[in-house]
Amino acid sequence: MNPSNETHQQQQQQILPNVHNPLQFTIVLPHSDTNSNPSSSLSNPSNVNDLLTLGIPRKRRRGRPRDTLSSNQVYNLPPEYPNNHQTKQNSFGSNHFDRNPNIGSNQASQVDVSDEIIVINKEATSEALIALTAGFPADVLTEEEIDAGVVSVVGGIEQVNYILIRNHIITKWRENVFNWVTKDMFLDVVPSHCSKLLDSAYNYLFSHGYINFGVSPLIKDKLLAETNTKGNVIVIGAGLSGLAAARQLMTFGYKVTVLEGRKRPGGRVYTRKMEGGNKVAAADLGGSVLTGTHGNPLGILARQLSYPLHKIRDKCPLYRLDGTPVDSKTDTKVEIAFNQLLDKASKLRQLMGEVSQDVSLGAALETFWEVDNNSSNSEETSLFNWHLANLEYANAGLLSKLSLAFWDQDDPYDMGGDHCFLPGGNWRLVHALAENVPILYEKTVNSIRYSSDGVQVAVNGGQVFEGDIALCTVPLGVLKSGSIKFTPNLPQRKLDGIKRLGFGLLNKVAMLFPNLFWGTDLDMFGHLSDNPSTRGEFFLFYSYANVAGGPVLMALVAGEAAHSFESMPPTDAVTRILQILRGIYSPQGIEVPEPIQTVCTRWGCDPFSLGSYSNVAVGSTGDDYDILAESVGDGKLFFAGEATTRRYPATMHGAFLSGLREAANIYHFDTNRALRGKIEKNPSKNAYVCGSVLADLFREPDLEFGSFSVIYNKKDLGSMCVLRVGFVKKGQESWKEGQLYSNKLIFQQLQSHFNQQQEVHVYTLLSREQVLELREVKGGDEMRLNYLIEKLGVKLIGRKGLGPGADDVISQIKAERSKSKPAVTVKSGTLKPKSAMKQKLVRKAKILRKNNNQLLPVEGVGGNDVEVKVGGSSVSGMTKLVVNESIPSVNMNVGEGLIGNFSASASYPPNVEGLGVGVGVGAASHGWDLDI
């Protein structure tokens, strides 16, 4: 019925030779099939262009994993990725890694060594895969890396070398996660001319928690050795996110105090000791499954503690109401039909576009089932309802409340690898993380006050804790309840995000039996229901016998049944479970005894959680996770937890990673705040920090027209203005048109996540009069650029090239805004109330294109899709999309901080406004200011 994945893989795939794999996970290649996928034909297994398979268990299949062919996504590394001793002359296409544009044709024979792709390790492909499991794309920078300024110019050889160094550092640490990796370890392999890139890569990886984290003795020594040289941070909540952040902040030199309402650490990760007679066992009543071991930081913690992991075997038989096994053919038939319905739902949301945000996944699936399977019998309907219950378990939410558009928005980022249990329970990880962390228990937080002077956190009993910064890691359910009062109130944007996101419920019944009557050959089995409203009641059983230390069986309650279970008497629950078990095993001649001990969870009633984990509800999007993660109060109050990570929500590793993320954010924000204080006193001394101030000011420009935005001192009509021009280009060109790829949609979603919108900002200083003249130029941005460069003789430069004079102007504008915030915002020359600018941010379900005046979904990756941004504001600006039409290319000659010589090589299509730009310095990123 459900053949083992290992057996299936042995039949379908061959192990990739010659690929060094320090993660000790198998990297496999599918057999070539030129009829179905020409690009999978392989002649050299060690070639960079080979298809490398990483298993990705889909969130939809949390209870019972999909078959191997469905769950494994095939990733084709870009052909440009370097391998062995390739250099820039033969390893990179001209679209991405052209020679530095500063080097003219007359200098071609005098190539500097810094313009060469370095060779660190012959296993560049393997190292790229390992970096991929840590969340880094193969050939581009993440948005976070770009924001951190890890390279001076995005794109080009410098970026390539940075990526190679970054991947090498990650790989070396993953080879031995017990050690503390230092920069000195790489001096012998990284060329001296790349020392700055080594510093940049190492500092980024360390500060953001990608290396040197965890609980090994050498890493704990670093934690204890660090003195409190920085500020005082109050962490609210001792769950995985709070503990991860606390340890990282202590490593950075902060004094940390963790406030926890419960009598124990761990939050929603809770291992209960069960005992009776001569039996003792441990059962995870909260988070239990490590969903994917490829790159999972909790798997790294287990390695540091030398704890083995138990793979949850795929075999999961299902039983009818009367206890008889479901026929394997019927089971397979319904499972295939169910997955086809999910595919149809995915296509439907593409056709519906934004309308799909207001439709539930449950409505779509049930409607499809009624239409497509009107001849199905009662058993098939019960099987269908079992799969719906499994889906509600995976999302901890009713399908009637899950968003059709975005319920699975995190699927492309699922960590590959097996789903596992930790023998002895996950409390072992929690206990190790809590060691040496100052935690105050039974401190229920009632209010959080934050201001420029710091934070005050009040707990039960009237005690108040004061600090410089606070990190709130309470579950989304607590935020929804309003039990914590924030002063001042949280921004409306965050309140709306809290309201929109879903927070569902999953309950469990753990039973310790006197003997293992269900056997040792299964880790899970399921039971059907004939009532849709109770389909999630004890629908799945997990066997903990191999990991708990005793015969423990766990029954899950999901969906609508999870809510009614909150008020069900425990005795009734046990009676119902025993009735199910005896119906299954008594016909086999197996006696089902009374349990020695039973524990029922009530996560919905727990005041410190008020639910289980988050999901994307109808009307919500993945953007709401980002909104919940935003800090408030000018970097005084931060937020972490599984509901703040759009890539890994509803997972233990997501919570842990969010803690590392916010520790990095606190460190960098705190550091930059100190530097901003210095620049305001002497604005000409620190151009980097001035750039940070400049970015803040342009969040609310005083004037906008087309791709131009302006800030100025409102009190002085004769003052100088800072003009910013934004050039936007969508996506990367690394996926060449016409190439075939498996799982194009996955690639599209991955690329769209890391590189949704790429924008380059360049600047100049103009008088107010010149700005107004420029605004009145007819013909759109192309003519404005021509007027700016040809008529006014202005050079557009990177932010560092603005110089001390501009620093003074920027400082004056900031000082004026600090005194009095403008009551109105000027948009395209028209005065509008500020409130009118607060438009709803909408994330489209899929990219759309025009075809015979119809909006249709775009399939696959590549082509000439170009996103043209009209207006500099992401809130109020308009966006148009053109497919397979020519746009003007703009060649940028970069040298000595100047950008000019714009030339258009094609005309705009008639339905496009704005400016489409090909940037000669390489692909740019969202909101990237040329740092020259």
Automatic annotation (TrEMBL):
The lineage of its organism: Eukaryota, Viridiplantae, Streptophyta, Embryophyta, Tracheophyta. It comes from Lactuca virosa. InterPro entries: Amino_oxidase, FAD/NAD-bd_sf, Flavin_monoamine_oxidase, Homeodomain-like_sf, SWIRM, WH-like_DNA-bd_sf. Residues 29-107 are annotated as: Disordered. Residues 83-94 have a biased composition (Polar residues). Residues 121-222 form the SWIRM domain. Transmembrane segments: none annotated. GO terms for molecular function: oxidoreductase activity. PANTHER family: FLAVIN MONOAMINE OXIDASE, PROTEIN FLOWERING LOCUS D. The keyword DNA damage does not apply. Residues 32-51 have a biased composition (Low complexity). This is SWIRM domain-containing protein. Keywords: Chromatin regulator, Oxidoreductase. Belongs to the flavin monoamine oxidase family. It comes from the Eukaryota. One of its GO terms (biological process) is chromatin organization.
